[in-house]
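Our preliminary data section would be incomplete without showing what the modeling component actually yields. Below, a chain of 625 amino acids is followed by its predicted structure, encoded as tokens that our downstream tools consume directly.
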Amino acid sequence: MELLVLSPLLFPLLGLLINALFGQRMGERAIGWTASLAVIASFVAAVALFAQVGQSHGAAIRVSIAPWIAAGALNVSWGFLVDPLSSVMMLIVTGVGALIHIYSIGYMHGDARFRRYFVYLNLFVASMLLLVMADNFLVLFVGWELVGLCSYLLIGFWFEDLKNAAAGRKAFIVNRIGDVGFVLGILLIFATFGTLDFEGVFAQVKERGEALAAVAGAITLLLFIGATGKSAQIPLFVWLPDAMAGPTPVSALIHAATMVTAGVYMMSRAHALFGLAPATQTLVAIVGAATALVAASSALRQMDIKKVLAYSTVSQLGFMVAAAGLGVYVASLFHLLTHAFFKALLFLSAGSVIHAMHADHHSNLDPQDMRNMGGLARRMPITFATFAVGGLALAGVPPLAGFFSKDEILLAAFSYSPLVFLLLGATAALTALYIGRQIALVFFGEPRSVNAAHAHESPAVMTVPLVALAVLTLVGGAINLPGGGWLHHWLEPVIKETAKPLNVVLALVFTGIAVVALAIAWWLYRDPQRVRAEGRSAWERFLAEAWRIDALYHATVLRMFYTISTVCAQLIDAGAIDAAVNAVGRGARAAAGVARAAQTGFVRNYGLFMFLGAIAMMLYLVFLR
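Predicted structure:
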């Protein structure tokens, strides 16, 4: 059983070891398929564990591999947990991850660091699996930090361009800020419960109940600070749009199956603690809804094809976080699952477009700028069809997967919080508007550049994963149909919630809003003149810069940091510490100069000094001793 539980984690590690040790003697295809088959094998093992959990009617499988830390009351082991929640996450990570690996074989063809890319990609999947399979907060934190490391390595993968390196650093540093809160939350959990094991902590939560309300509020607030970093919520969402600097499949992996889902998963795992802290839950719901609206409005004015999708991810994460704050964790996880399908599909389809826009290698046009595209539907029919499926799912058009998961969150907001409902409702309308704009700019009209005119469909190794993700996006909503679908029943041993039936009126209203918004986008952006004129007004620039929150950080936090650093460097370091050290050096040199004058090179002088020294010694012994 231990080997079966560990096998989803071991296969990616085996793949990266083979490529790291022997990849220099292997060709591109061998490297790519070694990494891809490792994740496929991990998916098969995850399916086997999923079936095992199902056969045991949701009973958790716990395996402790070895002790790790034993210091006083602190006892932590390398323990792993496979239950209904972790098994679903494992399927998302390995299933979507495998398709992204296969796609990467074609996308990264010819890259000078092809082997390193797949080593990092395998490590990313293994790190996320460690996070979701952990049976205690400390092992979860190890996976939490490793996915942060992998994001840094892959976002800055093309580090020759300093902007890419800066984006990697930004992601790493911003997440470290959130991790301070997360670490303090873990320490407070241990101080309160005397253990970090999920089983021990949640058993005490159930037993002690409301007596823990005050400390639970502090713990959950600290944990949520960590989640705002990983899952890109206000105020720490600013790293994710810049994360587009890495290869497009990396963006798909970060946005769909790893990294950003970690915060949502962590809050769902610790839902018992959050349930004792209504004030924290209210804050979580409002922050999530506000993030969703800010990011959606920012997506509406982006010109980079990947940045539109990046702000879209921040917005959709806001839906998930808001749902967690409302206490509907199954709805949050359902949207996480469907979002993994359609957002991976959108990113990989965007990658296919970018790949095709490189057709004219002599052009200096930006292959990611949508103003340089147009007319690609005829030239890339598979990419267009799959992008359209993903876009309509994101917009919430039935019967695609995004409709069911988003509708469930909107229904919960309608029932529990008018403010959150208004924010999410406005976000839903903007979502359909910006994805309609993107489809119109990229795929319709006439080509607006030589690159677009020369574009052609991507190879099968890239289009087959697109088709597979499109199928999942088409049928994924069936996983949790309104009224208590399969996912509600599957997660019931971990998360007990009452499912709500479909609100037909609400569903029709938001479907109508989505259709109208798509039609408005089509009407506005069919005119190429509007495309060229866009972005000139102050309001449009304000939205394009994400409400200038990043600029606010630069004007306040970073400027203060640079000022303090300058003061420390010039006054304290150079003016005080260096001056003191230099003064000692100058004193030593002066003393040496005086002593050097006595070094004449004449023996008679040295004899005289010895004679005078002997007389001085005798006088001291006779008169002063």
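The mean pLDDT is 92. Strands lie at 61-71, 74-82. Preliminary results of this kind motivate Aim 1 of the renewal.
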